[in-house]
């Protein structure tokens, strides 16, 4: 692994304390389930990305270490108190910026969108001054589900493209490139005042031209305001191997292309993840828009 991808894990006490509080309320974070390399830094800052709808996903994306499961499992049942618990934990942490994501729940007719929307509303009640970002699944292309989440009043709507079109069958076999673009486009059409955002990984075998094509599609077809670009790192041996380590200079080139293409903000770098430093990314994008 190159030197620019070495990151020390130094905040064990902060991580342990926050995990203990999360388990007390039976809550999950994508930081833990997806084995994010930034977890020590973010938990030490008092930041976490809540992952709702349980901790089992109905999809088998090749890059992701979130546990997979069958809907017949008891653990797949929704926890009615989860929205309230997320709000309670966000209030305990005194968050000014709350990021909520979820597993895919293709077993549910609404994709879990009612539960998602209720979580946003509970956070709004508990922390009326906080900004809220949602990082949603594609809801299998169900625009009613997208609109339902937006009706709850998030400030930022995020849906990740993850990778270039050519690699979808290997990286996201149960997703569709054009469908994800359509979800982002519908979010902007329905709520043009809400900042739209999408993230992608590099190092999975894509070419620079394919990355710039994806950025161009996000702007023209997805009408997306913010893009995040980070290095893919294999979370477990069961996941896809890394094909290349992208240099910081290449990330700078992607950022420059994205800004020239019209994004309000492009956050690109080896350790960038979709919700990493989300508060600062949102503030910079909003400042650009004004």
| Mean of pLDDT | 94
Question: In the CATH hierarchy, what is the class?
Answer: Alpha Beta
Q: Looking at the structure, what is the overall shape?
A: globular
Largest sheet, order of strands side by side?
A: 1-2-3-4-5-6-7-8
Tally of separate helices: 11
The name of the CATH architecture is Alpha-Beta Barrel
Q: Which segments are poorly predicted (pLDDT under 50) over 5 or more consecutive residues?
A: none
In CATH, the homologous superfamily goes by the name Aldolase class I
Number of domains: 1
Q: If you consult CATH, what is the topology?
A: TIM Barrel
- Rg is 18 Å
Give the number of DSSP strands: 8
The main pleated sheet reads as: 8 strands, mixed
**Helix proportion of residues, in percent?**
25-40%
In N-to-C order, the SSE pattern is: HEHHEHEHEHEHHEHEHEH
Distance between the termini: 40 Å
Overview of this protein structure:
The protein has one domain: TIM Barrel, CATH 3.20.20.70. The chain has an eight-stranded mixed beta sheet with strand order 1-2-3-4-5-6-7-8, sandwiched between helices. The longest helix is centred in the middle third of the chain and has 14 residues, at 113-126. 48% of the residues are buried. α4 (82-92) links the parallel β2 and β3. By secondary structure, the chain is α/β, with parallel strands linked by helices. α4 (82-92) packs parallel to α5, α5 (113-126) runs parallel beside α6 (143-151) and α9 (208-220) runs parallel beside α10 (248-261). The chain is globular and about 45 Å long. It has eleven helices and eight strands.
